Amino acid sequence: MTIGSSDATTQLAAITPPAHRVPPIAASEYAARLDRARALTAAAGAAALLVHTGASLRYFTGVPWGATERMVALLLPVAGEPVMICPRFERGSLEADLTISADLRLWEEDESPVALVADAARGMGVVAVDPLMPFAWTERLRDFGIALVDGAPAIDGCRMVKSAAELACLSEAKAMTLEVQARAAAILRPGIAASEVIRFIDAAHHAIGGGGSFFCAVQFGRATAFPHGLPGDQRLAEDELVLIDTGCRVHGYHSDITRTYAFGSVEQDIRDIWDVEHTAQAAAFAAAGPGVPCEAVDAAARVVLEGAGLGPGYRLPGLPHRTGHGIGLSIHEPANLVRGDTTPMAPGMCFSNEPMIVVPDRFGVRLEDHFHVTETGAAWFTTPQLSIDRPFG
Question: Is the full-model pTM beyond 0.90?
Answer without folding.
Answer: yes
